Amino acid sequence: MSKKPIIVFEGIEGSGKSHHISKVSKYLKERNINHIKIREPGGNVNSEKIRKLILNNKSDFSQNTDLLLYMAARSENIDLIKKSYKKKVILIDRFIDSTIAYQHYGMGIDVNLIKTLNKFLLKNIKVDFTFLNIVNNKNLYERLKKRKSLNRYDRFNMTFYNKVQNGFIKLSRSKKDNYELINSNLDIKNNEKLILSKIDKLI
Ligand code: TMP
Fold it and tell me: Ligand 1 test: best mutation among 57, 94, 147, most atoms within 8 Å of CB?
């Protein structure tokens, strides 16, 4: 594995992935390890514009349009990723597996179409490792309730989030060596330690 890997943080809403990616970024910064941290949808200026459009509560796009917008946001990020690929550690808050989990397992869009689009955009770029953060329904519900504002994708029902999370778990089983499951229902500090000790091995 490259010592300048791409490390992705995946999981449904309230699973703690954004918390952990920030901790990892801080950890690398303290050690002067060159890295970039981006999120999807989002990342560069154009992708952030697309993010706003997708997640705006007033938007009313079809599922296919959403898929294409997520891909458009990714397309705008690829140059950013290419510039740092194998030169810096790249931390990404959601990436290609989110599209499979949400748009395929959650919404039923053809998985092969999603894979083809991802391949078209990524070419030879490969994710080295993924932390999959999982959360139970009770904590998901409570964590969403605490949010000051909810976006368009924070408003699905539990059945949808369960389908998405089960999809993520299936993906993790198919790529066992490159995935680590983080149970966010357990102690957060302990999870931070688990993640950082894995990061030490990865970089
Ligand atoms: P975030 O709030 O974690 O940044 O994610 C925004 C939402 O976008 C989240 O509900 C998951 C969704 N999403 C997809 O549905 N497909 C994708 O490909 C990506 C990257 C995100």
Answer: 94
Nearest to 24 by CA among 40, 12, 38: 38
pTM over 0.70: yes
CA distance 144 to 146: 5
Split into its structural domains, the chain has a count of 1
Q: 43 in ligand 1 pocket by Cβ < 6 Å?
A: no
Which structural domain, as residue segments, surrounds residue 181?
A: 6-202
Structural domain includes residue 1: no
For residue 77, tell me if it sits in a domain: yes
For 183-197, the pLDDT digits (tens) are: 999 999 999 999 999
Does ligand 1 come within 6 angstroms of the Cβ of 153? yes
